Amino acid sequence: MTRTNLKVIMQIKGFNLTALASKMSVSTTSVFDTIAGRMSSKRIESALEEAFDLPIDTIRKAWNTQGRPVMTPEIKAALASFTKSA
User: Fold this and answer.
1) Distance between CA atoms of 56 and 42, rounded to whole angstroms?
2) Are the CB atoms for 21 and 27 separated by under 8 Å?
3) Fewer CB within 10 A of the end CB, N or C, for the chain?
4) Whole-angstrom Cα distance, residue 81 to residue 4?
5) How far apart, in Å, are the Cα atoms of 74 and each of 12, 54, 77?
6) Along the chain (86 residues), what's the average pLDDT of each consecutive run of 10 residues?
7) How many angstroms separate the Cα of 3 from the Cα of each of 6, 58, 67?
8) Strand, coil or helix: what is 37?
């Protein structure tokens, strides 16, 4: 999984990291630093896990991996359901 996969998940689920930060009343920098692993905040980590429906370790690894999206079964299923509803 790559950062692009996470961006696809955000697009499908209709959220972004700036909105998540605003909803939690924290700075956007705090959310970006937490997702990148430069900062640790249990509250932000929990919110990220809930938003992506993935463990924080998987999210961080993907966020720090550049490249083309990996077509996991979850991404394929999400894209299929997104395409059907569009």
Assistant:
1) 10
2) yes
3) C
4) 19
5) 12, 11, 5
6) 87 92 96 96 96 94 83 71 59
7) 5, 11, 7
8) coil
